Amino acid sequence: MHIIQLLKQEHEAIERELIELEKIFEDINELNEVNFPNVNHTFRKLCDIWNSHENEEEEVFPILSRNEIEIDIEKMLTDHKILRVYKNNILDAIDSGSFEKIRIAFSEDVPIMIKKLREHIDQEDNILYTAVLKYTSELELENLKNKFPNLGNWLKD
């Protein structure tokens, strides 16, 4: 499995957690209550996957950027910074243990974060990774993966 396949698998894992967050969001709105352990577990699992993936991408993007491939690395990195703000706001609310802070974070920050994260993933999958696959051989992609031996390791868990 080459590096782009692993990065796409990580996107799929992130999407599964986003779907779970949407269910939690619905429960908070419909039931007006928070299952703290579920919120904490789901969001932290998303953060674990996301943090690892983001770090990998920030190392891989510059290497993938070659003359034949037009990659707006700055936009991708800016997206990461913007998403980090939402992630930290939500973590702060969860860590507070306050139902009201979690309710506000889930009504204000979570929907925007989910939308922005899905847009970011879509751009990577449909623009960035497509361009990389077009201009990079399977052997180059496999060799690139070897430069990052921990890439995708958490997928084995």
Runs in which pLDDT lies below 50 for 5 or more consecutive residues are none
Backbone shape = elongated
| First-to-last CA distance | 17 Å
Write down the domain tally: 1
Helix count, DSSP H or I runs of 4 or more residues: 5
Radius of gyration: 17 Å
The CATH topology? Four Helix Bundle (Hemerythrin (Met), subunit A)
CATH superfamily: nmb1532 protein domain like
In round numbers, the mean pLDDT is: 85
How many strand elements?
0
Structural class: mainly alpha
SSE string: HHHHH
Indicate the CATH architecture.
Answer: Up-down Bundle
Index terms:
mainly alpha, Four Helix Bundle (Hemerythrin (Met), subunit A), about 160 residues, single chain, elongated
Summary, kept brief:
The protein has 157 residues and is mainly α. 82% of the residues lie in helices and 0% in strands. α2 packs antiparallel against α3.
